[in-house]
Amino acid sequence: MRLFAAAGLALALMFSTAAEARPFTAKDLATQDRVGDPNISPDGRWLAYAVRSTDWDGNKGVQALWLLDRKTAGAAPVALLKDEKAPPAPAWSADGKWLYVLSSKSGSRQVWRMAADGSSRVQITSLPLDVGFFRVSADGRVLVVGLDVYPDCADLACTKTRADAAEKLKASGKSFVGGALPRNFDKYEDDLFTGLFSIRLDGIGAPMEATPLTGGLKADIDGEQLTLSRDGKSIWFAALPAGVSPGTGPISSLYVVPADGSAKPTRLAPSAATTDSRPVLSPDGKSLAYVAESGPVMIAQRSALMVRDLKTGATREVAPDLDVSANTLAWSLDGKALLLTSQSLGQVKLLSVAVADGKATTIVGDGTVAAFDQAPGVIVYQRESLTSPGQIYDIAGAAAPRQLTSIAATPMAETPMSEAEQFSFAGWNGETVHGYVVKPTGWQPGKTYPVAFLIHGGPHGSFGNAWSYRWNPQVWAGMGYAVVMIDFHGSTGYGTAFAQSIVGHWGDRPLEDLQKGWTAALGKYSWLDSSRACALGGSYGGYMVAWIASQWQSPWKCLVNHAGLFDTRSMAYATDIPNFSEEQYGVPWTDPQAVDRFNPVVHVKDWKTPMLVIHGARDYRVPLDQGIGAYTANQRLGVPTEFLYFPDENHWVLKPQNSVQWYASVEAWMKRWTGED
Questions:
Q1: Which residue ranges form the domains of the chain, and what is each CATH number?
Q2: Which of 228, 346, 415, 563 is deepest in the core (most CB within 10 A)?
Q3: Average pLDDT of the chain?
């Protein structure tokens, strides 16, 4: 399937007007504006959305809020907020009169309200703590906010006083007791938890009291995991059991709590053994839709779309024959269908699933739909692809999609995107496996090009038809490399069985797919130069790089290992998510042989291929010692190696100048070994 999406065609038209085209670079990627969080007003006229820009000198991103009049031809978007530290998280009132946002203009992150045109701005909350997220009831009378608090504090002043006192302590030691894990992704844990509070909006401008709703519940509640009744009297949310760490594999459950704080949260299904999440209330307020997943929590569970009758408590699965991964979930405005985004064969589609019979209809089928919103007769959505960064579109009835934003249009016009093509082949067990090939910039028939063979992480992930701000094939294309990416067994978007087939098989089934995919790509695309190829991967992809260093050496002139697992046994003890290791390849103290079956450290003596190792000091997902171990092994063996260390990065490289340095180091390493200097 050749990809010439609407956005790609629009950009191609712009290319023809550019005075002089040039290759797309890492700095182009790092400084590119990013659109997100589309929110449409209830009457369908106004589109509010966030834009992240790059402060290059400050080495950080800054946030803004923009507004577009959809119904006025030729209307230009208007900036309502600029230079925000965090996303504005826009949300319309049910009557469309007001737009609520998060802003730090007052010195702390609080909820503000403004009219649709940006006028009549007023600060709604003046809390002593930053607001993490908020929801407004449909009747406009109740505001629910998420705040980081000490669960045993009776009020916000208590949390503020205790937090201020903690900052003044000279002693820095921290004890962890009761089975709590000390780290989570890139931070050491503290005693704060994200709790829910309600605020009455009857008298805006008067002092407002925040009523605690989840006091004593030692669990972090995510703003994407709650929904309110129309009258604001009840709140449903998903949370882990109190006091447990996310990395230990417990299931999350649905809870309901009265918004006036008159009772503690009640678990909806105390005996449920499923991981329940993403609750959304039906338009008539009678039913709750949610996603239920069964089995171990970290092995790409199947998403069951459930509906619960709030009066009787009866639940049923809407589409039992539908094998999807529901990334986002919403009701259609008429209450007859569920809307969701789901990975499928290298795309992330926007689907409508009828509640009555489970029939699924594709609304947007190509590219990656990252977010969506709706008003009567129209859906707005954010879509990206391998050839275009995220843009916002609308689709009304049978009309063709219409692009509403042109983020980064000028720089993109100067850097034509390289063509991408999906292909497939028979992989492990004879099953169909998909991959993508991206041509290098300036591709010409009859010439051959060196290859960047990119291996995705996860392992339950995908290198599909999406735009990435970390591993972007267009940057390698701009360097002059062809790019090959394989969605091996274990990848998401190809069914639950396909994704779960990697469990206990990290080093054989995916490796077979990668090998067969490489052979298939060479057979199909004669312009790939197999004698000048490097393999690169991050996280699980970095693990695979360390694995193929001993198991599949012949094609590769060099390797790049970013944040990769080097020793699966020590990883199981040091990671912030030990349950992931235990579910994926075995429990180290009961079955060490299983853990070592595909352990790269066991085969280090066979390493020969030059390897660049990259790691961040704040990476607690795959801790720093994993990267240092791989580098040291290469050094001690006399294998050419370099180590790129970021003291201020986590599992990803996020700061713009660090990202450019990352790509420059990778490019220099690849050209050194592929003879492209």
A1: 418-674 (3.40.50.1820)
A2: 563
A3: 94
